[in-house]
Amino acid sequence: MTATMTPYRPPQQAGRDGFAQLVHAEWTKFRSLRGWVIAMVIGAVLIAVVGVLLPRGDSQCGTASGAACLAQVPTGPGGEAVNDSYYLAAQPLADDGSITVQVTSLTGMISAGNGGFVTPNSPPPGTLTPGLVPWAKAGIIITAGIRPGSAYAAMMVTGSHGVRMQYDYTGDVAGLPEAASPRWLRLTRSGDVITGYDSADGKGWTEVGSVRLAGLTGTVQAGMFAASPLDFTPNFPTYSESGGSTSASVATGTFNDVDLRGGAAGGRWAGQAVGATGANYAGPRIGLRQAGRRFTVTGSGDIGPVVAGMVNSSYDTGTLADHLFGVFIGLLIMIVIAAMFMTVEYRRGLIRITLAASPRRGRLLAAKAVVIGLATFVLGSAAVAVAVIAGSRIAHNGGIYVLATGWPVQARVILGTGAMLAVASVLALSIGTMLRRSVVAVAAVVVAIVLPYILGVSGVLPASAAEWVLRVTPAAGFAIEQSVPQYLQVIGHYGPPDYYPLTPWAGLAVLCAYAAAALGLAAWLLRRRDA
Amino acid sequence: MWTIGRNQLRAEWTKLTTEPGTAWILAFLCLLTVAVGAATAAVTRCGAGTGSAVDPTRVSLTGIEVGQAVVAVLAVLVISGEYSTGMIRTTFAAMPRRWTVLAAKAAVLTAVVLAVAVVTVAASLLAGRLLLTGNGITAAHGFAVVSLAHGPTVRAAVGSVLYLALVGLLTLGIATIVRDSAAATGAVLGVLYVPPVVALFLGSDPAWQRWVERYTPTNAGLTILNTTGLHGEVISPWAGLGVLAAWAAAALLAAGVLLRLRDA
Amino acid sequence: MEATIEVTGLRKRFGSKLALDGMTFIVQPGQVTGFVGPNGAGKSTTMRVILGLDAPDQGSALISGQPYPRLRRPLSHIGAMLDAAALQPGRTARNHLLWLAHSQGLSGRRVDEVIELAGLTSAARRKAGGFSLGMRQRLGIAAAMLGDPPVLMFDEPFNGMDPEGIIWMRGYLRSLAAEGRAVLVSSHLMSELQDCADHVIVAGRGKVIADTSVAEVIAAVSGDRVMLRTGSPSAAMTVLTRAGATVAPAGRDTLAVTGLASEQVVARLSESGVGFSEISVHRATLEEAYLELTRDAVEFRAQPSRPVQPAKEAVR
Questions:
Q1: Of A478, B76, C51, C233, which residue is the least packed, with the fewest Cβ within 10 Å?
Q2: Rounded CA gap, B102 and B9, in Å?
């Protein structure tokens, strides 16, 4: 009978056996487990909801509230929000010319701050003590006008950073280092090009920098100025937002041998407080005094960009990163699911069925990585987009000035954070493959990815340790959330959530390196081990 | 009644000690906690501007923040490992009084964690003291000393040991409620690690921030590690540990009720 | 109180599915009681309710007159094996039995006794995760016998046993019953139960369909059949049909005759001079009886196998 029996041939054509089919199979496996899908969606929803709800603003300013308070925020030529308040003693300069001055001294007073630790020895808030904050400024300036936000270039002596040339709020060039008085400063204008020089003796001049300022046409103001910004002392030398005391300050520059070329003949130096509403100290000391050929200008305030983390007295600032507080919660959920995506195969020997269907193990791991990475990227990016766009809009309506909301920055934050979530998920999948047991894998994944972020951000560790953690561990990926640049010339709290030790793409690259290494190791282990 | 309790204790003790993973997890708990504490102490330097803001005892005990995850893993395995294999039915057939089974598991887990925690905390403090004095953080420079003759340090040491045990109990309760081992691990680690960061970001809402800092398990519980700067804290050390104890008790209570009501 | 399991009016619903719908029976001591039924009939659910693991919506289950939670040292009243794979794989077999023993106040000595009883002495110190199916079944039986209980309950104990193990198991179950214990065994392997069960409870759709001795169940169904091999099947068919039997062809030269005892068949054929080469009596089995009884109660029926179709087109 067996001789006449024909072998069985399946009537259907065999399906194709490629990587795309494998990905399709893994996607079916993933989406058919309702609990996982729900958990991923919950993670995304949490990112979006937390981002939209926090922070909200409720500024009041006189009779107006909310977004109306932001109408008077000065913006510089580059479009960024700026602080622009100082005391100016100037004359109009109609055409090309120069101003040269000798700064004989720079002194200041600091008003004891509030908001810090109160100890028995600390003076009551408001007491003035002599002292210079690091970025106290006095020098010469050529500015398009006294409207806050005008284009300018200035040469100045600072409290502890030597001579510097600053222009258009974000530009900063170092000149002579911290040296004893006196110092000579010069600014020359030629059309819309301004060049700054400094000298230690008034005879040999070194060019510090030369800039072309758009908008510096026609009559400009040239003269002496003094300003002194709010100083910030953190309570703890840790990396987190732990609060600190802010001190108002005032600086006095003494100028000799003031030489203005190109001004009106017989012009008089007129003093005025520019951007008075932005000054952090107001009092009788502010102003211009003249004694023969010596001028003393006392002023308060800052000329520079607004950075996140700085205490700004007249309006609240925020950044896009402020709306990303929910990301680490969504991350926690997504990496748990990613780890489970592989460990669940090892329960009850499901891995054997999977490997019988798809024996090429490297491809299997790759297919799983593609599925979980794409799902996380899409959900994560969508959630972050909602959080950032809707959240910043709501914050703006509440009176918070959201810094750096240009489209390129927003796109980078949204897609970059989505990518960070996806890469972290792939890392978690790899760890799950290596460890196999779900409880241990989930714990390992949380400890490796989320815990360093928490340790670095929450102020538990000293500053150096926290910084190290945020550079070297997978938590470096959070740096992609940064949206505002740091400025050396502005004192502020440069820490999370607005600032991280690494630049955005560098941080993401660190996380990618971990994920790639883990994926490679996981693939190797998967191939070697018995199922 | 007492006989029943003794049998269940003995059975759960045998269960825990005959599972080979237990010894590895406990060893890892000790190693990881001491290592993290030592690493933190090694990078803490006496530099200009640090002032008296460095709390040497707290720095030495930084590892507790990480070690609690290992305690959580152990506690999840103690209960969820039975659910995933179906052995829970054998357990409840042998010991139908489910409350006492939970109590026996809690007692055995606590005993084991306490024992290892004592060794771990002692080793952490010792390592921290050696490394910090090497870095210049000594009494001569005005810092608090890591020494068991110092009252607050003793409180921090005892409190840390109790903290780890309470984390284990909290986890046992949550894992009994959730049952699935991976989901339970995720849930517990979320409860432990998420609120502290949430508190940071509630700066615009100080009332909520204060509530989160005072009444969530890790925020409140970890205050026991502090020996300096206490007037700046939102809750006193022992009260903080009490908050954690309340959370653990509530979790175990809910777990016991659900255990009775649900099918095995 | 006599060693019995008494289940009365159990009702339990899981979501939308009614798993138990008035399940009622008594398991008596001194005999092996088979508990059979199609998949989904409620056998495992009933066993879990008996052990107090699942709570019924209505009804009660008593072991020797007491509800399970009221039993002190329950494993010395009833020993059960529900799922042999319910072990943590890292633990050795002996340690698994050890914690169970400790929970009843028993010592390691009793553990070694039951290990020997179940034939696991050589494997006792190996990790349970590496056990084969059959060894896990033996471990489950060892666990059930730890407390030396008068009532025993096994869920599919024959699964995974090799032929030697099945023979051992049959004999063991019979010896347990002979000691006066009440033994409840659920199984799908009717042939095994037929040789060791004295009483059978047939369940279907959450209730009891039949609750009698094995002999009665078989006798109540179909009856005996006589298989006949003959050179002249048509002649034999005519003769036997005239004698009142029902005859059906069963192969080229074989006939199946029902309704007539074998002696009568022989007599009729010899009278009429119809030759035959072979005659055998085919007794209805417990399996056939069961299939007929539960025909209506089956919930999950696989597709009957279809004959192979030749390929429509050659594979390119």
A1: C233
A2: 10
The pair of structure tokens assigned to A304 is 């520079």
pLDDT single digits (tens) C199-247: 999 898 899 988 988 878 777 665 678 888 888 888 888 888 888 888 8
Peptide bond into A92 cis (omega under 30): no
Q: Which two tokens stand for residue A434?
A: 């290596």
Strand order from edge to edge, sheet including C246-249 = C246-249, C254-258, C225-229, C278-282
State which residue of chain B sits closest to A57, comparing Cα positions.
B204
How far is B263 from chain C, CA to nearest CA, in Å?
4
Point out the least confidently predicted range of B98-102, B252-256, C22-26, C192-196: C192-196
CB neighbour class for C71 (10 Å; exposed up to 12, middle 13-18, buried from 19): middle
Chains in contact with A, counting 3 or more C-beta pairs less than 8 Å apart as contact = B, C
If phi over 0 gives left and psi between -120 and 50 gives alpha, with beta otherwise, what is residue C72?
A: beta
Res. A251: pLDDT tops 80: yes
Q: Compute the distance between CA of residue C113 and CA of residue C128 in angstroms, rounded to an integer.
A: 18
Burial zone of A266 (CB within 10 Å; 0-12 exposed, 13-18 middle, 19+ buried) = exposed
* Chain B residues 166-185 within an 8 A CB cutoff of chain C: none
Q: How far is A11 from chain C (nearest CA, A)?
A: 6
DSSP A321: G
Residues 6+ positions from A504 with CB-CB distance below 8 Å = A412, A416, A479, A480, A481, A482
Integer Cα distance of C256 and C249 in angstroms: 6
CA C245: distance to chain centroid? Answer: 33
Q: How many CB atoms lie within 10 A of CB C57?
A: 11
Residue-wise DSSP of A233-275:
EESSSBSS---EEEE-EEEEEEEEEEEEEEE-TT---EEEEET
Residue C312: its pLDDT value, please?
47
| B24 vs C contacts (CB less than 8 Å) | none
Q: Do B8 and C103 touch (CB under 8 A)?
A: yes
Return the SS3 of C183: strand
Give the integer Cα–Cα distance in Å for A505 and A516: 16
Whether the model pTM is above 0.80? yes
d(CA B142, CA A156): 40
Contact yes or no for A132/A106 (Cβ under 8 A) = yes
Q: Are A165 and A196 in contact (CB under 8 A)?
A: yes
ipTM above 0.90, yes or no: no
Contact by Cβ (8 Å): A174, A162? yes
> Does A116 score more than 60 pLDDT?
no
CB contact under 8 A, C53 and B81: no
Tell whether the model's pLDDT for residue B203 goes beyond 80.
no
Give φ, ψ of C212 to 5 degrees: -140, -175
In this structure, what are the phi and psi dihedrals at residue C154, rounded to the nearest 5 degrees? Answer: -125, 130
**Residue among A378, A380, A369 at smallest CA distance from A342:** A369
Whether the Cβ atoms of residue A244 and residue A115 lie closer than 8 Å to each other: yes
Interface contact flag, A6 C310, Cβ < 8 Å: yes
Q: Tell me the sheet residues that pair with C25.
A: C7
The pairing of strands C151-155 and C182-186 is parallel
Residue C271: CB partners within 8 Å, gap ≥ 6?
A: C239
The yes-or-no verdict on residue A195 having pLDDT over 80 is: yes
In the complex, which subunits touch B with 3 or more CB pairs below 8 angstroms? A, C
- Residue B170's SS3 state is helix
